[in-house]
Design goal:
Elements (H helix, E strand, L loop, with lengths): L1 H19 L34 H9 L3 E4 L2 E5 L3 E6 L2 E6 L16 E6 L10 E8 L7 E11 L2 E7 L2 E6 L5 E11 L11 E9 L6 E10 L7 E4 L19 H7 L5 E6 L3 E2 L14 E6 L6 E4 L7 E5 L8 E5 L1 E4 L10 E5 L2 E5 L2 E5 L5 E4 L3 E5 L2 E5 L4 E4 L6 E5 L2 E2 L5 E12 L2 E2 L14 E12 L2 E2 L3 E4 L2 E5 L2 E3 L9 E13 L2 E3 L6 E13 L2 E3 L7 E11 L2 E3 L5 E4 L2 E5 L2 E3 L5 E4 L2 E5 L2 E3 L5 E4 L2 E5 L2 E3 L6 E4 L2 E5 L2 E3 L6 E4 L3 E5 L2 E3 L7 E3 L4 E5 L2 E3 L10 E3 L4 E5 L2 E3 L2 E2 L5 E3 L4 E5 L2 E3 L2 E2 L6 E3 L5 E5 L2 E3 L9 E3 L5 E3 L2 E2 L5 E3 L3 E6 L4 E2 ...
Parallel strand pairs: 13-14, 14-16, 15-17, 16-19, 17-20, 18-21, 19-22, 20-23, 21-24, 22-25, 23-26, 24-27, 25-28, 26-29, 27-30, 28-30, 29-31, 30-32, 31-33, 32-34, 32-35, 33-36, 34-37, 35-37, 36-38, 37-39, 38-40, 39-41, 40-42, 41-43, 41-44, 42-45, 43-46, 44-47, 45-48, 46-49, 47-50, 48-51, 49-52, 50-53, ...
Antiparallel strand pairs: 1-2, 2-3, 3-6, 4-5, 5-12, 6-11, 7-10, 7-12, 8-9, 8-11, 76-78, 78-81, 79-80, 79-82, 82-83, 84-85, 86-87, 88-89, 90-91, 92-93, 94-95, 96-97, 98-99, 100-101, 100-107, 102-103, 103-104, 104-105, 106-107
Amino acid sequence: MNNFIITISIFLLFFSNLIYSNHIQLNDYDFNDKNSENIGYTCNQEIVSKDWGFQRLYETFKSGLNETIQYNMTIIESEDWLLVYTRDLSISFVTSLRESFFSTDVVGYYAIRIEDSGINSNGDEPMFTFNQTLHTYYNTSYMLTFTVSTTIANFAMEINFNGNIYKEISASQNTFDRTTYQYYIDASVLTHPTTSFGLLLTYAFQEVIPVVYVENFNFIKQPGNQLVEVYVSNKGSDIMGIGTIDRPFSSIQQAIAFITVYGSAKIILEPGFYCGMGNSYIDPSSCQNLQIISQDSDNKAVISGEGQLIQVEFISVMEYGFSNNITFENLIFENSSTRIGGQSINIEGNCSLRFIGCEFQDHYGESVVSINYLQYAIFYQTTFYRHKQYAIQSIGVFDEYSLLIENCIFNCINSLNLLNIEAVYINNAIFNYDLNENTNTGQCPILLDMIRRLEIQNSTISTAVCVYRTLLTAAYLSFYGQPSDIFTQSAFLALNSDTTLSDSYFTRNGNLSSSLSAFEGILKLRDTIFNNTFSRSSIQVEGVNVEFKNLTFFQETNALICSGSEGSLHYIELIDSGSLMTLTKSSLSILGSKFYGNINANNIVKSALTTINCVFMDGTFTYFSIITSTYKDFNSTFERNVFGLFSTDGPTNITLTSSYFSNNSGESLIKLNELASAVIIDCTFSINYGSDVGGIIQMQGSSNAIVSSSLFFNNSGSFGGVAYIGPSASLSFYNVTAIGNQAYKNGGVVCLDSSLGSLLISGGYFSNNNAQLGSFVYYYGNSMNIHNATYGTDQTIVLGQVFMDVDTDIESVVESGGFYQINITFVNNKKHPVSDYRFDKSKKLFLSLGSVVMFSIDFPKDAYLIIPPFQLIGAIGSKQTLYITSDASTVTSYKIQFSFLPCNIGYYPNEQNTLCIPCPYSTVGTDGLECQACPQNAECFGATNIVGLDGYWIDYNNSLTDVYQCPSGVCFLNSTDYNTTCADFSTGVLCASCIDGYYNCGSGCKKETSINKLVLTTKIIMFIVLVVTQQLSSDNSGLVTIALYFLQTLVVISSGIKFSILNLFSGATSSHAGKSDGILSFLNDCIGPYGFYWNHYFVILQPVFLLLILALIILLEFSLRKTKIIFKIPLVKDIIETSDKEFRNRQFSAFVKVCMNSYGPFATEVLLILFCNQVGSYYLLNANPEVQCSGDQFYKAKTVTCALIVTLAIFPIIIFALLYRHRDRLNDKDIERKLGVFYLKYTPKLYFWDVTLLLKRLSIVAISLLPFDSKFRSISLVTLGLLYLFIHLKFQPFTSDQDNNLETVSLVLLFISCIYLDNGLYEDTEQYILIMCIVVFIIAAIKFQSKYLVNEFNKSVYPILKTIWNKVFSSNSNNDTDDDDNNEYKVVYNTYGDEEEINKDQQFSYDSMRNIVKEVDKKGTFYNFERKNQVSSVSSVSYSYDDDDDLIDVFGNSISKRRN
C-alpha cells in the first residue's frame, strides 16, 4: 500500500509540474481570431474539462501507444489524462451499463468500466487512480460533477487537488447503486490561479472486486453574478469567457451556469456548429424561465449530437420551488444519438416547453423528441426531416398536460406517439413522408392514445392517424397519398373513441383496406367527401354508433362496411361507386339520400336497414342482397336500375310502403327465396321489365308475400308478368290493381308454377294483361282462391299441367312384332282425374317410337282414353322409348322405355333386323347376333347344333367355338343327337373319366373289383429285376444308366402312349393315363380298384419300394455270407466276392444307382400335380384330364408336392457337394470305394456328370408336363434335345468310347422322338416311331457294348457253364484244374514278343476306334502300348481283366497274368 502511494505521489508531482508550466493567461486568447487553432468545428476545445465524456481517453486506450507497466501497475497517459491501476483490475470503455441497473444509459461518449482482471497483484491492494488536466481561470470557483455506478459499493474514494486530499468518500455497501456526486470547488483551493489543475480519484477495493462505472466527469465554472442574457459562440471560451457578447462562452452548459435562477433569462447562440459534451446533454433545469435562441433566425445555430449524444436531457423536479419554462427558438438539432434509448430531446417533469422555428433532421436513434409528464408543450413552425422513429413521443398525466402543434411539418412516416394527455391541439400541420423510406414500420404513424380532448384542424395527412380511447374533434382535414403498405391499412383509424370529423376530404389513399376505420365508440361524419380513394372500402366500422350527414362518395369501391353497429345516414350521395354498404349484425337508417350507378350489391347480413325518402337510380347490379335480415322502405324511388333490386336468403323480411318503382329491368325486382317474406303496401310498379320468371316478384321455397293496395302497370316478365310463385311459396293480393302487364310465356299477372304453392286474390281490378297461357293466372294443380276480384273475359285462368296415368302391357322387354295396348287416365298433380277439364279440340295425342310418329289420336271428352292394340316392330336387341306426347302445352308427355328381345343363341337377325332366323348348316350361333363358321375339328348342323369330330370334345356350358382334343379313342361324333358320345365306360370332361367301378391305368376304362394279382406280381418281379440289375452292374460302365434314362425320357415325352409292361423295365411306371388301344398296351396294369390319387402316391413311393427290395436282398445275402452258405452254393460261389469290404461297396453302389435311376420317374410324379390347363369351364390336370385341379384331394396332393420339391433340389446338390469336396482325392482307394459309383464311368474332369444328368432329367420332366398342345412345350423339348446332344458331343463324358457312342445314339433318338412324338401330326404313327427307336437303341447297345457284354458273359455266365460242363463230361477236370485262389499275379503287356510288367494298380482305357488298350497316368495322360509314346490327355476309368484268363489277345498285342 505504501509503495503504491509513493508511486502515485511521484506521478502526480510530475503531472502537476507539467500542468503548471503550461499556464494560460487571458491575453493569450483572441476571441475574434477565427483562425485560432483552438477554434473551429473540433468539439469542446475551450471548455474546462476538454475530455468531458472520455472521448480522447478512449482513443488513447484503444491505440495502446501510451500504455506502460511499472511497479505492478498499468499506466495510461494522454494529453489531458493519467490513469494508474493495479493489475488486479481490468479497464474497458462502454456505451451502456451491462448489469441490471434501473437505467443503463451512459451520459457522455463513454463510461470507464472497472472490474476484476483475474490476475493477482502480489499482495498490493487493488486500486484505481486517474488525473485530469483542468483549464481553469484565476480567482474562479467551479462545480465538480461525476457519476459512479457499481454492483456493490464496497470501496472508498478520495478527491485530490495537486496531491492534496479534498474529499474522502467511504464505502456505502449499496448494491446496484448509481450516484451522481457534485461538489462546489472554492477558488481558494486552486493554488495556481492561472494554471490548470489536476484531479485525482482513488478507489480502495475491499473483499470482492465489484464492477464499477465512472462517467460524466465535468468541471463547470461558477459565476460571481448571475446574468439574464448570456452569449455563446463556437469561437468563445469557457475558460476565459464571461458570457458577454465580446467574451462569449463556447458551450451552452457553461452559459446555463451563469444564468439567473429566478426570473426570465436568455441564452443567445451565435451562428455556427455546436457539438461535444458542453453542447449536448444540455440541462436547463436550474432555470425558471429560459430561452435558448439563435442570434440570427436566417442563419440558425446547429447543435449536433455526432450520432452519439443526446442534445437536451433533463428532469424537472421543482428543486428551486418552481417549474421550468424552457423555450428553444430557431435552432437546428441534428444527428442525435443512435444508441439504444438515443434521442435528440429527452425531458421529463413538471415543466413547460416551447419549440419555435426549430428544425430536427437526421435522427436515426429512437424518438426524436421524448417529452413526458409536462405541464404543456408547444411546437410552432417546427419541422422534422429524416428520422426513423417517432418525431414526437410524449406521455402525460390527465388534468396537467396539454400539447399544441401548429404550423409544423413532419416529413417522415412516423410522426406522433402521444399517450394520456389532457388536451392536444394540432393545427395547420403537414404529415408527409419521404418516398425513399420504408413506409411499413409496424406501427401507426400518428398514434394518439387516451387523449381527453383532441382537436385537429386544417391539416394535410399523407400517412395515417390512429385515435385510441380519445375524444376527437377534427375539421378541414385532407387525407391523400397514403402508401399502400402502411401498417394501419387505414388513413384514419379510431378505436373506442368518440370521433367527430367534418369538412374533410379523402382521396387517393392507396390500395388500403379502408380510408376511415372505427372500432367501438362513436363516429360522427359531417360534410365529408370520399373521392376516388382507391381503398377497398371508404368507411369501415365495427361496434360503432354512427351518425353521417352530407357525405359524398364518388367512384368508390364500397362506401361503407358496417359490422355490429347502429346509427343513421342523412343526405348521403353515392355516385358511380361499387356499392353503398355491407352490413353485418347492424341496424341503420338512411334518410333523404341519393344513390346513382352502383355496380355491386349492397349486402345486408343479419341486420336491419331502413331507407326513407331515398332515390336509387341507374344501378347495374342487384341493389340489396338481404340475408337473414329486415329491410324497410318508406316513400323511396327506384328508377332505371338493372339486374334487380332485392334478393333474399334465409329468414328475411322486406316491407315496402309507398315506394315507387319505374323503368327497372333485368331480373325480377324482388326475389324471395327460402323462408323470406315481403309486405308491399300502397306501392306503384310501372313499366318494369324482368327477363327472369316473375317481372316484379319471384318467389321460391317456403317464401311468403302479401301485397295490398298497390298498382302494377305495364310490367313484364317471362313467367308471371307481376309475380311468379314457386314450390311451397304463398302469395296474397288484397285490392291490387294490375293493368297492361305481360308474360312472354304463361301468367300475365301471376304464374303459379307448382301444385305446392298457393295464391290468394281478394278484391282488386285486373285488365288488359297478356300471356301465351293464362292472361290473368296460370297455375298448376290445386285450384286458387279468388274472391271479389274484377277481371274481364279476356283475363283467362289456365290450369298449367295435366298428367297421364298410363296402364299398359308393354313390359321392360318385348318381342318385336307383338301387339300391345295402352289405357290412359288424365289426372292433376294429386292423381285425381280431371273430369271437368275440356281439352282443345284442335289438339291431338301422338304415339312415337323413338323419333318416328306411329299414329295420332284425339283427346277424349272425359278423362279416360283407351288406345286400340298396336304392333311394335323394331331393331332386334335395341333399347327403345315409346313417347306419348301432345301439341297441347298443358298436357305433359309420357314415355315407356323397353328393349326388344335379342335373338336366342343359334339365331341371328334378318336384314331388316326385325326377325330372328336360325343359323344355317356349317355355322353355329353363339351370341344371338351373328353366325360363326364351324370351328376346326367339329361339325355344325345349324343353330346351336355343333359336335366335335371323333377324338374331340366341346363344353356346351362355355364357348361353343372352343374344341378340345380328347384322349385317344374315348370321344366319338354323334350326328343323331348332335353331341359327343364317350367310349364304353368313359364319361365326364373330354370323356377322360371312367364310370363308377371302372378305372383307367393307361389302357382304357376297365372294370376293377379287386387287386390284380398278375399285375402286382409282375411289378414286384420287375422291381426285383431292376434292383438286381443295378446291383450287379459295373460302376465303370454307363450302359444301365444310359438305357434307363433313354426309356424313362421316352415315357415322359411320348404324350401318354402306354408302354404297358415294357415301361416296367425302365422303372417309369406312372399314374397318369395315356392313350389307349396301342399295340404296346396289351396288358391292363391296374393294380386294383384304385383311382388317380392312389396310383399317384404309389408312384411317389416307388423309390421306397425299390430300396425296400434292395434291403431285403442285402439282408438275405448278408445272412448267407455270415453262415458261409453262399460260398458253398454251386455256381453262385464262383461269382461272389469273398471280401466283406467289396460286399459293402457293391451294396452301397446299388443303393446309389437305385436312387439315381428313380429320380426321373419320381420327379415326374411329384411335379405333374402343379401343371393344370383350362378346358372350357374346367381346370384339368395336364397329365390326367380325368382329374380336376380343385377339391380337398387335389390341394392335399399339391401340399405333398410342395414338400417333396425340396427333395428334388437337395438330392443333386448333395451329390455335387460330396464330389466337389473330394475332387482332388478321386483316385484314392477309399474315396473310390465310397463315391466311385458317381464318377468312375466318367473322365476325371467331368466327375460331376451324374449331377448334370439329374438336372437334364428335371428340365425334360418340367417341360413335358406343360399342355400337350402348347407350342412352347414342343419347341422347348426339341431345343433341349438338340442342346443336350451338342453338349454330349462336345464333352464326351464317359471314359469308355462304347458308352459315349451309345449315349450319342440315345440322344439322337430322343431328339427325333421330340420332333415326332410331341405333336398331333404323327399321332397314329407315334407307337411305331417309338418301337423303331427302341429297336435302334437295342441294336446300337449290342454293337457298341459287345466287348463289355462278352466280358460280362465271360466273367459271370461262362464260369458257371464251364463248371457244369466239367462236372458232367469230365471226371478228371478237378485234377487238371489248378487252384488259383491263392496265386498272385502281375499284369504284363506283350508287344511283339517282349514282355513288360504292369503295375497292378495301373488304370487302363480301351480305345474301340483303334482297338487298343491305353495306359492312363494320374494326370489323365495315356500311352500307346505299341510305341510307349505320350499321345494326349483324356479322362480315365478303371479297366479290369478276369483272373481266370491267362491271356487276352488284342490284335497282336497281349495282356496276360502270370504267376510270380
